[in-house]
C-alpha cells in the first residue's frame, strides 16, 4: 500500500472524529458545549490546517464527516450545531481549494447509531441528576422521561450497515470525479432534509414539533 501511494505523496485526509450527546439546550453545561466545539469543529480544523500544505502539493482530497442532522435537530442540538459549522467550513474550503486542484467532500450519513455506537442510550435518571436546580424547576421528571424514551427509540432504529458510509468515503477518496456531498440516508431522512432546505422554516418547525410530540 505504501509503495503504491509513494508516487503521489500525501493524497487523502479524512476528518472523522466526533462525539454526540442528547439534551435540550439548557440541560447541558457550558463545559459540554466547549468540549463538543473542540472535538467536532476545531478538531477537524486542526488536522486540516496541519496537512493543507501537503494536500496542496499533491492535489489530494479532504473528506469531512458531517450528518443530515446539520439540517435539523431532534433533541441533540449540540451535535447538530457542530455539524452545521463543519458544513460551512467545508463550503468555504472547497471553493478556496479549487485553484490548487484539491477536492473537498462531505459525507452526510443518516442514522447509523447502531453501527457507530457514537451515542449510548441515556436514562431519565441520569439526565435528571445532571440538571441544574433552575432546569429542574422548569421541567419535570415525566418530561425528561418522555424525551429520553423518544431519543433512545431513534437510536434503536439506527442502521447497522455502516459499510454504506465507508463506501461513500472510499468513493470520495478514489473517484476521478468525487461528489461535493454524499448523503447516505434512508428515504424518510432525505425527505426531512428536502423539506428543511426548500420549505419555509415554519413548515419544518411544524414537522419536527409533530415528531417530538409523538
TrEMBL record:
Pfam families hit by this protein: adh_short
Keyword Transmembrane helix: yes
Gene3D superfamilies from the UniProt entry: NAD(P)-binding Rossmann-like Domain
Leader peptide range in chain numbering: none
Top-level taxon of the source organism: Eukaryota
Stretches that traverse the bilayer: 62-79, 191-212
Keywords: Membrane, Transmembrane, Transmembrane helix
Keyword Transmembrane carried by entry: yes
UniProt similarity note: Belongs to the short-chain dehydrogenases/reductases (SDR) family.
Name of the protein described by the UniProt record: BDH protein
The organism of origin for this protein: Hippolais icterina
Lineage: Eukaryota, Metazoa, Chordata, Craniata, Vertebrata
